[in-house]
Every structure is written in structure tokens, then in C-alpha cells.
Amino acid sequence: MSSNTPTVSPTTDIIDALAGIAPGDTLDEARRRRPEARTHAQGSFDALFVPDDPSHVTLAERAAVALFVARLHQQAPAVEFYGALLRETGKGLGAGAGEALEPLIVAEAERAAGSGPYGAFRADNAPESTEGPVYRVSSVEAAYALGDRLAAALEHAHLLVLHPRDAAREPLQQLLDAGWSTTGVVTLSQLVSFLTFQLRVVHGLGRLSAGEGSASLPALAAEVARAAETRTADGSAEAATAGPGEQLPPAPEVQEPPRFTQEALGWKPWLEPLPVAEFTERHYDALVQRDRVHMPYFRLLARDPEALRERTLTDLDIFTNTDAGLPRAERELAAAAASRFNGCVFCASVHARFASENGADRAEVQRLLDDGVSVRLSPRLDAIVDATVALTATPSRFGAAEIAALREAGLDELSLLDVIQAGAFFNWANRLMLSIGEPTL
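User: That's the sequence. What structure does it adopt?
Assistant: C-alpha cells below.
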């Protein structure tokens, strides 16, 4: 939330609840060594599900999309939690509306399920492309029950979750045509991308945890819904639709990078960034670093300032906290591996370069970019890359084999947490970079 807004949020950490982490256990202690990442991962949840302003994306729409995304990831505790949240927030839609939507959305997600990431690589990497099922709402009856806005949102969520490489400018216009505002599209993309991080952290920590998840997820969902209604005073607010005839700005002129590289790239947005003239102190606070106002990516995400601020502070602690754990170069290598697998040329360029600058062998990093995530570098780096790739798959397949390899390579509990959080975070970052703009030389 913004620094000037009193905190109204659930008292239970959502990641802890879903992963079954108990106070005082080894994972709780490890997460306390990354206190800003823990605080701001929860803060990101608050910004997106206990928002200051739900007018661009209603509380029920947020919960409905989250349930769909959780089911695509096949995470039973998250499905239970976000289903309960939909039942709570959907009460404002009319008697039984949340209860009626829940089974419909689960059925749509089951029909849309797959094993991603799918999608087309570009230029020199085109032979690596992988086809997968494209999702459209299943029937006229389902489309009617969901409505134009929510049907378009679920299709957008499926694209981001399972087809991140196929994200393109045209689907954003489809959202605008369905009644979404530009700010609403940014929030929706931020929410889906955040969930791909949260659910992977939950999955990874759940494989390390002896817990079975919280037994009171419906009660926690009710607490979240009450907090959201307290903050907004009207959780059933009408959604702010796009203005009449709202269109995307003209397509940017770009020179597509022909391959993955450690060289610096540019990035251009498909949606209209917030004009600098409209920035308030709330927006500058969200940037964390004030000079980012000159970067279109951050000005676009500043349309939802609280979500941007919490995301940035989560990022900083995951990658720059120097209190033991995984060396910075290896955290950056995990980010580069996730980006290479998802097909985000821009993110891969930034974080491969950071890995080299922080002590990784530049030639080895380049081999990862050139040859892909199956390349063999060294037993330790292979364990980190393999774990990141397993975590990045949808549904995540990270498990006992990856944990054993990481432990054999000498990683302790805190280093395991760093691998999980670094890889998971770049599922969030990749999907934003890929879905709201494109790289350019």
C-alpha cells in the first residue's frame, strides 16, 4: 500500500498458509532472513487483493481470475483459498453469484489445462517453439454467465500462464473491446503475473515443508474479503470500463533481437504509459527510484502504483540481500534460466549480464543463452538451472529430485529459498515484460 495509507490487511501470511509453514520451523527462519521479500510478497498480495481502488478490476474479478490461475497450476490449497475468496467477494454480485461462478471457472480451467510454457520463439531460436492448446471460453452459455469482461480476462490469464511467449499486442485490444480500461489491463496483467510467482514459491516451499497447508483457508479468505471491503468501503464497486472507442496507441517501431544476448536491449510498451504530468508523490513513491519516471516500463506499471511499489521491493530483497544464502551471481543465473525457458529475451539479457558482472563465467552464461536450459555447465550450476526450469514449468514439477541435487551441490536451507524465490520471481517479471510490450535492439 502507499506510504500514506493505513494498513488494512489479513493477519496471516498467505504464502506461509498455503505452503504449510509453521512459526519457528526451518523455513520460517529462512524466510525471516529475507524479511523484505517476505513483507513485500505479502504486500503485493495486499495491493492486488486488498486494493485501495477496485474500480478498474473488481474484487470478485480478481478472485475469479486467481481461482482460474490456481487451477491451471494444479495447486489444491490455492484452489481452495481463491475459491473461498470468490464466494466471499462474489456476494456483491447478487445472491449466490460467487457460488455459481466458482464451479464454472474450475470447469473452464480444467478444460484449458496444459503443460507449459508453450509458444513461439523468435528469429534464430524459432526451431525451439512448442505448440500448445489455445483457450477460448467453452460455450455460449459459459460466455453469458461470465460476461464479456471476465471471459476476456480468463483468456488473457491463460495466455500469460501457459503461452507467455505468444503474448502479443492484439490481445490487449480485445481486452479493451471487452470493456477493460488501460489501467485495468495493467492491474490484470500484474495480478496474473504475481500469481505465477506466488504459486511457485508456495510449490517450492511446500516441497521443503513438512506441513500440510492451513486447515482454515476459507476463514483466511473471509478475513481477506473483510479487509478489502473495509479498505474500499464498497467491495462491489462497478468496474471502470474503457472509454468509447478506446484503442491501443500505434504499434511501436522496433528492431527485433535475433537471439538471446548479454548486450543491453531496449523495450517499448504496447499500452499508453502514465504521462509524467500526471505523476503524484504516490506514483513517485511507487517507483522506489525516482529517475525511473523516464522509463516507459515503470511509467506503465505506475498505473497501479501500490502493486508496482510492492513488486519492486520484493525484487530487491530477493536479489540483493547479502545475508548469506546463494551468491548474487547464482541468483541472477536462476533469473536468466527462467527467462530463457519462458522466452523473455529482454529479461534474459539483463540478468545474464548481471550474472556475469557479479562473478559468473561470461562464456558459461552465454552458453546458457545460446544452447538453452538443457546445457551442462557444472554440477552446482546444473542443479540450479534444472531446479529453476522444473519450478518454471506449468504446472511446476520441482520436487524431490531437484531438492536432492541442490543439497548434493552444497546448498543449505537459505540457499534453497534463494533458488526458489529467484526463479519464481522471474515468472512474474517475464510475463509482464512479454505481455505489455516488446524488446528492441
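The chain has two domains: 14-232, 266-440.
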